[in-house]
Amino acid sequence: MSFTYASVVRTAALSRRLRRITLQVDHPETLGVEPGGDSAVGVYFAASPDSPGRNYSVRHHDGALIDLDIVLHARGQGTEWARTARPGDRVGLDHARSWYRPDPAADWHLLVTDLSGLPAAARIIEEHSGATPVTAVVEVADGDDLDYLPPHPGVDIVPSIGTGNGYAPSRLAGLVEALTLPAGRGYCWFAGEAAESRAVRKYLRGRGWTTAQYDITGYWRFDSEDWDARFALVEDRVLAVYERALAEGKGDKVASEEFDDELERVGL
Asked: Is the pTM of this model over 0.90?
């Protein structure tokens, strides 16, 4: 059990669309925040694992203090919490995890994200050693959203402004397919809308990439309410595919891919 509590110690507006919430974790050793660049935790707004919650990237981590940079939307429980949080407020924390595992044999890296993954992308860029060239495909609502990303001489930004993010159709998968990829072995990290994540993964697999060469995560899903209703009708069937893959020792990444392939087969 990794559940613990935390207190809000300060808040700050970073931009029109990003707000930083700094938390002091009661028992950081219990939570076990991971060191990966896209480290994330589940935040429960009413300080109970049964209360509403959302997953957020850990932008900075220093002992018991963690910074969460939260993208503000027009509405939603997470946005309401981020806008109204004050020092002294209590939350619950759980499910510390990360997905970013760069292939050590990669000659170059590709980062692909929309607003939902912007804090994780910023941390990955900030912590990048510079030894490996990086291209970052970033889909944002407005040009000033890009100012949040730290400058880095080894990172080339390919922006898409005004697309995706629930405002318009996403271009992430199309932009990845249009790239002239460098020679040598690549590694891709993706964080964004789930349908785009599927398209990017299928494209890379079609180019012969192995699972060691990418970590692709759908952070959110367009039209999620309709999708959830349809998923409920086939939940047992598709979860059985995931559980069977784990039981066969295939590992979480392969099991997740087989789960997503089954979702596609049933029209989700």
From this structure: yes
| Contact between 140 and 113 (Cβ < 8 Å) | no
Query: Which tens digits make up the pLDDT trace of 17-67?
Result: 999 999 999 999 999 999 999 999 999 998 888 888 999 999 999 999 999
Sequence-distant (6+) residues with CB within 8 A of 128 are: 109, 134, 152, 154, 155
